[in-house]
Task: inverse folding
């Protein structure tokens, strides 16, 4: 059941990114550790962003826009409810960052319940 639960969570993350950012990550892996859901995403950047990051200013702009946008997306109460319903716990906080050069993003969701136990 653990892999299915992780896959379901990853699918919701991908669906969210696709809807709000314009494309979802090419590859996504989620792991549950205690109260944390850690999603690692590869292949996030759009063609326009790949063009923009060829300059230092473009790279800074894409990184700032990506991290700010992702944090803003998860302020939506409807979206938060979808994640909370899936895991059966309340979302307390979320951390997100992207390594532009490697095109790898990480999002850590912190819930008020032990997700490892729920995923078994």
Result:
């Amino acid at each position: 059941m653990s892999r299915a639960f992780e896959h379901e969570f990853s699918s919701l993350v991908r669906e969210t990114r696709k809807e709000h950012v314009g494309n979802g990550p090419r590859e996504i892996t989620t792991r549950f550790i205690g109260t944390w859901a850690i999603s690692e995403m590869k292949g996030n950047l759009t063609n326009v962003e790949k063009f923009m990051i060829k300059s230092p200013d473009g790279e800074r702009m894409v990184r700032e826009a990506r991290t700010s946008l992702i944090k803003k997306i998860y302020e939506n109460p409807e979206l938060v409810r979808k994640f909370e319903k899936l895991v059966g716990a309340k979302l307390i906080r979320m951390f997100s960052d992207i390594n532009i050069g490697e095109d790898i993003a990480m999002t850590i969701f912190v819930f008020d319940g032990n997700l490892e136990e729920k995923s078994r």
